[in-house]
Design goal:
Rossmann fold, 6-stranded mixed β-sheet, Immunoglobulin-like, elongated, about 25% helix, 6-stranded antiparallel β-sheet, alpha+beta, 4 domains
């Protein structure tokens, strides 16, 4: 599945397309434990809170009145409170009760990202230290690495032997590529779970299993908790793998952020406290433009009750953690001095040209701050600048098993997708609190389990759910159907936004800025969303080139396999600078897969561009070295165009010995004008015949034209129709 955003204009602007995975709503939607004191609704926030005294000892005798909870600066009333210890919940009054089997589970994900042998050795010894003695029965661990992406060496298990083998492999100096380990784990999990690993089925399966557990307990029989847990954990790791395989591999900072997001975003599937133990050699730089995705890692971790415990595996270092920042800032200062001394007789050096960017980078160069932010914002802690990692990791073991659960109602008046900060104050200044820092405010109805919603999507999805769709400016959307190499049905989604319909504001003396955000949903007839695409795109253009830019169109295409049936395509577009939204809904019918003669949708061609290195060759709009950019509901001007072109694909019946033929019938305003039978070429290696028909318009009268494309092969026929308006 590939997306292909294209700008069609006289001037091709350089546009940064940020693919920003972002966070869930923070509102807790987990089913409450049976008979427990904590009862949450979709409007309630549930916090895991660890409290220690000045000496680092856990404090387990606190009451609700010892805590003050602030949400975006407003104090909130505590609606639910209890202490969780192992498999028991202790209510505020001191009464104890057993947690339900799923909530007893504690998950620990060990992620290794070390290159230096000393760092690997420290991480290896620290990880094995956690396995000394028997693991608590309810603690399950997994082993993963990040090289070019997230790799899984061992799925969740409480078998110390399997965990030791995976830790050894993750920290050996000769190991650099773990993709084969991931493939083996994935195959094992698929055999356990079965062919259908969709999130919706997994959730329902867990519900069914929980109901079966309850029924068994009611009848006095012991439920198969181990089987239920193993299935749920296997399902969760499979979803992680499937998710990370769709993430693009980018430079180091982006790889880290997307890999960590993949590691946390599926862990909502099991309740209870979850921990990621992240061994890394130093921190990492958050690239410019990746601030929001990094916030999303924190927000999604908080939504899924995942705490990061980050270990800087460099151990005790003699250099300052800020030395990188100082060096970068010094480079910026030297470049600034040289730039001021330059009287114009010397060429501008690259470091002078990047002076502003270098200054910004200096604020990010203390990479250990990234790890500290990640840990402290999710209720964990940073372990750094020490060779004694074992002592703080023992605190981790305590935090996994013992913590407070505190629930409150946030009373959000406007779900605007903003980040809401959480602060916890204690009545005693001698106490230290670990808890998450906040969450992204998203409407509960739009933030179902498993959905990653970005802030810009909130107003767009709200518009699509309104009774009357907003139509403040014009754009087009359509879904085209094709046949894949395996005879499967392939959908090509097309979005066409005239850039003249966007608002551009002048920024400074010689710059204009605009912003385009969009969301596209493919829904079943039942209303279930099966595909969701979206992006938020900033435009920065010199004022002198603004007219050339706005004369063009933003064309976005996305192709994907889609089973036969009836669907609805819903799209919404936001003009960011003008704060205007338009939305559309289209009906979509996907034909059943067939090896018989068939024909694709017909596309009116806006133009054809050279294929880029990143273009997916399986895109149905690719013809050799060129890519078709379609026009939706086209209006053609005779004054500006000498012809109009159409793109169509014929899929011959491979079992037929007769060659396929094509006829084209022209009509204007319902009256047939004539027909033609162009000669077709030979099928390509995939068995398709791609055809571009070009019609001269000089002799045609203005009006609405229809062209019927009729494919014939022996007794078989297949046809498609397209229209255009000639002015």
């Amino acid at each position: 599945m590939k997306n292909s955003p294209r700008l069609m204009c006289f001037w091709l602007a350089a546009i940064a397309l940020f693919l920003l995975p972002a966070g869930y709503a923070q509102q807790n939607a987990t089913a409450p434990p049976q008979g427990a004191a904590v009862r949450t609704t979709s409007e309630e926030v549930l916090l895991d809170v660890v409290v220690r005294d000045k000496k680092g000892h856990t404090v387990n005798n606190l009451k609700p009145e010892d805590f003050q909870i602030f949400d975006n600066g407003e104090q909130k009333k505590i609606m639910a409170f209890r202490l969780v210890q192992g498999g028991e919940a202790v209510a505020a009054g001191g009464s104890r009760m057993q947690l339900d089997p799923l909530r007893q589970i504690r998950l620990v994900t060990m992620i290794f990202q070390c290159w230096n042998n000393d760092a690997r050795r420290l991480a290896h010894d620290a990880a094995l230290g956690l396995l000394k003695g028997d693991l608590p029965q309810n603690v399950y661990m997994s082993v993963m690495t990040i090289d070019r992406k997230l790799e899984v060496l061992q799925s969740f298990t409480n078998d110390p032997g399997l965990l030791r083998k995976a830790i050894d492999r993750a920290t050996r100096s000769e190991n650099t590529d773990f993709s084969s380990d991931t493939a083996i784990v994935q195959k094992q999990l698929e055999q356990m779970v079965g062919p259908d690993s969709s999130g919706a089925q997994s959730i329902q399966g867990q519900i069914d299993n929980q109901n079966a557990t309850n029924a068994a307990q009611a009848q006095g029989r012991a439920p198969d908790v181990a089987g239920l847990v193993n299935m749920a954990m296997a399902q969760m790791v499979l979803q992680m793998l499937e998710s990370q395989q769709s993430s693009g591999v980018k430079e180091a900072g982006r790889v880290n952020i997307y890999a960590l997001l993949d590691a946390v975003k599926e862990q909502y599937r099991l309740p209870g406290r979850k921990t990621i133990l992240y061994f890394r050699e130093g921190g990492f730089v958050i690239p410019q433009g990746m601030e929001e995705p990094f916030k999303s890692v924190i927000s999604v971790a908080n939504r899924s009750n995942v705490s990061f415990y980050a270990v800087d595996a460099r151990g005790l270092t003699t250099g300052s953690a800020s030395s990188g920042a100082m060096n970068t800032l010094n480079r910026a200062a030297r470049a600034s001095q040289d730039q001021m001394a330059n009287d114009g007789s010397q060429a501008v050096r690259p470091d002078e040209a990047k002076l502003f960017d270098t200054s910004i980078e200096s604020t990010r160069a203390n990479t250990q701050n990234t790890l500290a932010n990640l840990a402290e914002s999710t209720g964990g802690m940073l372990i750094a600048n020490t060779n004694d990692v074992g002592t703080p990791l023992r605190k981790l073991a305590e935090d996994i098993q013992t913590y407070y659960e505190i629930g409150y109602v946030p009373e959000i008046k406007s779900y605007d997708g903003s980040f809401r900060k959480i602060a916890i104050k204690m009545n005693s200044s001698d106490l230290r609190v670990q808890s998450r820092s906040g969450y992204i405010a998203l409407p509960p109805a739009l933030a179902g389990q498993g959905n990653l919603l970005r802030a810009f999507e909130v107003p767009l999805l709200t518009a699509l759910s309104s009774a009357e769709l907003p139509k403040t400016f014009g754009y087009q959307s359509m879904a085209l159907h094709f046949r894949g190499a395996q005879n499967q049905s392939v959908c090509d989604l097309v979005l066409d936004v005239p850039l003249a319909n966007l608002t551009f504001q002048k920024k400074g003396n010689d710059q204009s800025e605009g912003r385009l955000s969009y969301v596209a949903l493919v829904k079943k007839g039942s209303g279930e969303v099966i595909k969701k695409f979206g992006n938020d795109i900033p435009f920065h253009v010199p004022n002198a080139e603004r007219d050339a830019l706005t004369a063009g169109h933003f064309i976005y295409t996305e192709h994907f396999d889609l089973p036969p049936g009836h669907y609805t395509l819903e799209t919404a577009v936001l003009d960011g600078e003008g704060n205007r939204i338009s939305a559309r809904k289209n009906s979509l019918m996907m034909p059943p897969p067939s090896s018989a003669l068939s024909i694709s949708s017909v596309s009116v061609v806006r133009n054809m561009k050279d294929k880029e290195a990143s273009t997916d060759q399986s895109d149905p709009l690719v013809i050799g070295s060129r890519v078709v950019s379609p026009t939706l509901n086209p209006t053609v001007s005779k004054a500006g165009n000498s012809s109009v072109s159409f793109y169509v694909v014929i899929y011959p019946d491979k079992n037929s010995s007769q060659a396929p033929r094509l006829s084209m019938q022209f009509s204007r305003n319902g009256q047939v004008l004539g027909s033609g039978s162009p000669e077709l070429g030979q099928p390509d290696k995939d068995g398709r015949i791609q055809y571009v028909a070009t019609v001269a318009v000089a002799s045609l009268e203005p009006g609405e034209y229809a062209i019927r494309f009729n494919a014939m092969q022996g007794a078989e026929t297949a046809e498609e129709v397209t229209t255009f308006v000639l002015q």
